[in-house]
Design brief:
By secondary structure, the chain is mainly alpha-helical. It contains 32 helices and 2 strands.
């Protein structure tokens, strides 16, 4: 059997969304214990001996929420705890952090002022207040905040960049370059330093100096997409338009559908000037925060990454690169609705608009809002009938929801422009083959599976699906067995594929070996009704009748597909041979 979720007669695993719901229900229980359900009174629930409406109860609830990556809930509970303990510096600090993570800048600034007033060493708070001053164009107070004390941790890496951009605000390039000197000792940050220094030079009119630095970065480590956009714009400004086109093309060879770079190249080819990444000190500081967020957007740094992404957007609300990153962080934290809301802020006209709508559809599907997900994808296709990524996403969604006929039509549309299929297109033929097999268009399905194997020889998923389909139809059993054995050799612990080998052996009359493989398949996939049913049939053929009836009964308990239920019930009542005779008759 295929291990694809829509494999023939295979019950799909628990969907991600149902697993998520189960996790949220369990977490809701924890929060109830922590007092998040609003119980109060001396006789009410307690947490570690504290009444649930106490400051400690809300503090612990906030910590639970932070573990669950729910910054909004954490902020609410910290605020309640802080109201009872307004001078508690630890609570002020934690509330400040979650306010940054939720983008509540007004509250974050107020708390930062409290932290700075109470302790001159409040490094991150000073950086945040300095960002507020830069946003307002007040560079002198920003400079004073940054120079007041030494920042710690990651803030110590940001401080030189921030101070450099403040110096750009004064129009002093030499001072800006001097401000970046502390990063010379941080070898891993030399590329980041040089990139920002290039942006500073360009912003203050030294485009030749900017290009020299960007060329150095390109030669030593290659350019990121952001640096590619920066260098292309600088080269075009210098009149080196062919070189600019070459820089853009080089990036597109690696990331073919990078829309901001494609847009910049189109503008260049139309005779225009591509937009600069940075044109002011405020833009530069936003770019620094965005770079920090991107560097931290890993599992353990996602909370900090959210803070810096929000600061980037505070300084530059149109920085959709940061908005996309923020939404991706929310997705990584399984905050699907928050991610949807963030993507929805990206407006038509942005180079990220189409990608944001594609991601909204994915997140709607994760929330089981399937009709909305389909509508979102169809809206993308309506704007561009040749948008293959949207068509494939739509087809995959329809197939996963067992709307196989509609899925096959969507795959057909996606493949219309496929003049010469390449190796990576194997998955398209495989997916369409599944949809066609399920709609009983076997000749087309078989052709697709064979094409998938031509593009990706010996791929275990295709070997297994085609081999199992042949076995079910009694076709090409020798070749089917050879293909499935090859698939098992690659994935010996895949219960579906091991089941396929057991089933081809069964269909060929080798019942003892069939039992051996089917028992192994049940060990690997104990909750699959098809595999348990297969093992029951094999047990019956080797004379283990009691065990056969047990497996069939267990298969019924596992909620098989409707077309299997009557057949299994018949076997339980009359035995395998009688049930088969009755069916054949």
């Amino acid at each position: 059997m295929s291990n694809d979720a829509t494999a023939p007669k295979a019950r799909p695993p628990l969907p991600r969304s149902r697993r998520l719901k189960a996790s949220l229900l369990a977490f809701a229980g924890l929060l109830a214990l922590a007092g998040c359900q609003g119980h109060s009174g001396a006789g009410g629930p307690t947490l570690r001996g504290e009444p649930v409406d106490s400051a400690l109860g809300h503090y612990l609830a906030a910590r639970h929420a932070r573990v669950a990556r729910d910054a909004d809930a954490a902020a609410r509970h910290y605020e309640i705890a802080l109201a009872d303990n307004p001078e508690n510096r630890a609570l002020i600090h934690r509330t400040f952090l979650v306010s940054l993570a939720t983008g509540d800048h007004a509250r974050a600034f107020a708390l930062a002022e409290q932290l700075v007033a109470g302790d001159g060493r409040a490094g991150l708070a000073r950086l945040v207040l300095a960002a507020r001053e830069v946003e307002a164009g007040r560079f002198e107070p920003a400079e004073a905040l940054l120079e007041a004390d030494e920042a710690k941790g990651f803030a110590a890496l940001l401080k030189p960049l921030m101070l450099g951009w403040v110096k750009v605000g004064f129009g002093d390039l030499a001072a800006a370059e001097a401000a970046l000197k502390p990063l010379d000792a941080r070898e891993g940050f030399h590329g980041f330093r040089d990139y920002h220094l290039a942006l500073m030079r360009d912003a203050l009119g030294d485009s030749e100096g900017a290009e020299a630095l960007l060329a150095k970065i390109d030669d030593s480590r290659g350019l990121t997409a952001q640096a590619t956009l920066a260098r292309g714009a600088v080269l075009a400004k210098l009149g080196k338009r062919d070189d600019a086109a070459g820089v853009y093309t080089k990036l597109l060879e690696r990331i073919a559908d990078h829309r901001p770079v494609k847009r910049a190249l189109a503008k260049l080819e139309a005779g225009g000037q591509p937009d600069a990444i940075v044109v002011s000190a405020r833009d530069g500081l936003a770019e620094a925060f965005f770079g920090a967020a991107r560097a931290l957007a890993q599992d353990r740094g996602r909370s900090a990454a959210r803070m810096y992404a929000h600061l980037a957007l505070y300084l530059r609300p149109g920085l959709d690169d940061a908005r996309m990153l923020l939404a991706e962080i929310l997705e990584a934290d399984r905050r699907w609705q928050d991610a949807i809301d963030t993507y929805a802020e990206i407006r038509e006209g942005s180079p990220y608009y189409r990608d944001s709508r594609l991601r909204i559809a994915v997140d709607l599907e994760r929330l089981e809002r399937l009709d909305e997900a389909v509508a979102a994808l169809e809206a993308i296709v309506a704007k561009d009938a040749k948008d293959n990524a949207a068509l494939v996403a739509l087809a995959d969604l329809l197939r996963s929801r067992e709307r196989y006929g509609d899925a096959a039509k969507a795959y057909d549309r996606a493949m219309l422009g496929l003049d010469k299929p390449e190796k990576h297109h194997w998955s398209l033929f495989y997916a369409r083959g599944i949809a066609l097999e399920r709609t009983k268009e076997w000749e087309r399905a078989e052709a697709d599976f064979l094409k998938a194997l031509e593009l990706s020889p010996d791929h275990p998923l295709v070997l297994n699906y085609l081999g199992y389909s042949w076995v079910e139809q009694g076709l090409n059993l020798d070749r089917a067995q050879e293909m499935i054995e090859k698939a098992v050799s690659q994935r010996p612990n895949d219960g579906y594929i091991v089941d396929s080998l057991g089933w081809v052996l069964y269909r060929r009359g080798d019942y003892p070996d069939a039992v051996r493989y089917l028992e192994r398949a049940v060990e690997l996939r104990p909750n699959d009704p098809v595999i348990n049913d297969h093992l029951g049939d094999a047990y019956w053929q080797v004379g283990r009748r009691i065990e056969a009836r047990f497996q069939w009964s267990h298969a019924l308990d596992l909620e098989p597909e409707d077309d299997q239920v009557a057949r299994i019930q018949e076997k339980l009542q009359r035995g395998l041979a009688a049930a088969r005779t009755r069916t054949d008759g």
